[in-house]
Amino acid sequence: MELRYTPEEVAFRDELRQVFQSKIPAEIRRKVSEGRHLEREDIATAHRILHAEGLATPNWPVQWGGKDWTPVQRYIYTEEIQRNAVPMPLSFNVAMVGPVIANFASEEQKKRFLPATASLDIWWAQGFSEPGAGSDLASLKTSARREGDTYIVNGQKTWTTLGQHADWIFLLVRTDPAAKKQQGISFLLVDMKTPGITVRPIITIDGAHEVNEVFFDEVKVPVGNLVGEENKGWDYAKFLLSNERTNIARIGLSKEKLARVKERAKETPAGDGTLWDDPDFRRRVAIAEIELKALEITQMRVVAAQRSRAADKPDPNSSILKIKGSELQQMATELMVTVAGPYAAPMPSHSHNEPPVGPDWADAVAPQFFNFRKTSIYGGSNEIQRNIIAKAFLGL
Ligand SMILES: Cc1cc2nc3c(=O)[nH]c(=O)nc-3n(C[C@H](O)[C@H](O)[C@H](O)COP(=O)(O)OP(=O)(O)OC[C@H]3O[C@@H](n4cnc5c(N)ncnc54)[C@H](O)[C@@H]3O)c2cc1C
């Protein structure tokens, strides 16, 4: 197992770092670093710059704009993008629907959708979860009944992240109500402007509009928007979810956050010195850093194993990375709340039109702490990941 980067890999990392630091506007990187909410334009600007640099879709097939990188180079890319506080290219496009279209759609669909998906001319949303179908996704009820060349879609999706910005949505729908639950599902691409679609915001505990409910009432979708075969959607969904969980540890992001925690703690008065002089606080940071180092080494072990494995097969180790990675992201936001102390107000000041009471950076601290509770739920909850580990490693 080789955990150190080769000189070529170090050069590759430095080149990426240079692009991320020089091309992405400092204001957008500042927002990411401080954990502020990004506007649609921030996400789109960063995505389009990365696309222009050939860095938005490295994991796609080369023919469609992907990179012939090694697993280590792919790891370095993710680590550096996060470490440099650059917004990730929109995951619904890049990590989810793009690879599904590239692998399972018709040539015509590939030509129609892939270029616009890579460049973000189409903004996609993920329409999988429903009330009553989250962890047990195969219980989904949204139906698509075929009438000639059209599917008629009825039902409800929920937790649809950034659905308020979406041009299109990829849906899992039930096309055969009589089949066993995994076997009657299809994967449909739906234009959000189609009559019969209603998007309703869900305002989360941090006061943000990040997720939505989406309702479908007799929505007409051309049969040509079906991906792959009818009733085979579950296979495509499994493929998509295994991509979603790749790099879910977000080690670069936690490193960036812990670096900010230390920086701010050194500026925060406490007792006769600063918070950084407090041994108990330093102990908490040390625990987080040690855990993060251990996670990084685990991640590198997974990457090293991939060096010798040709196919990108889903790896049950990604469940360990998901659990530990999400816990560490949450731990970093908890430490930042300690640093901000009484200035960690639960809502950002702009939400009630008042100037921040404390330092400007502290304004986003508590909202992000609340927001990051999501990391142990989405992408397959941590309890579900534990079930996967129990099956794969313990044989339970
Ligand atoms: C911020 C956020 C954004 C999201 N964005 C999207 C999106 O864009 N598109 C989309 O389709 N979905 C999205 N989701 C949905 C997400 O995938 C689901 O929330 C997740 O799969 C959990 O499903 P659920 O919320 O229905 O909870 P449930 O499945 O009802 O689970 C409730 C609790 O029970 C536990 N549990 C459930 N089953 C088991 C079991 N078998 N063993 C042990 N424990 C179990 C869970 O871990 C959880 O703690 C998002 C969720 C969040 C929080």
UniProtKB/TrEMBL annotation:
The keyword Lipid metabolism does not apply. Residues 6-119 form the Acyl-CoA dehydrogenase/oxidase N-terminal domain. Pfam families: Acyl-CoA_dh_1, Acyl-CoA_dh_M, Acyl-CoA_dh_N. This is Pimeloyl-CoA dehydrogenase large subunit. InterPro entries: Acyl-CoA_Oxase/DH_mid-dom, Acyl-CoA_Oxase/DH_mid-dom_sf, AcylCo_DH-like_C, AcylCo_DH/oxidase_C, AcylCoA_DH/ox_N, AcylCoA_DH/ox_N_sf, AcylCoA_DH/oxidase_NM_dom_sf, Mycobact_Acyl-CoA_DH. GO terms for cellular component: plasma membrane. Its cofactor is FAD. GO terms for molecular function: flavin adenine dinucleotide binding; oxidoreductase activity, acting on the CH-CH group of donors. Residues 231-393 form the Acyl-CoA dehydrogenase/oxidase C-terminal domain. Residues 125-219 form the Acyl-CoA oxidase/dehydrogenase middle domain. Keywords: FAD, Flavoprotein, Oxidoreductase. Belongs to the acyl-CoA dehydrogenase family.
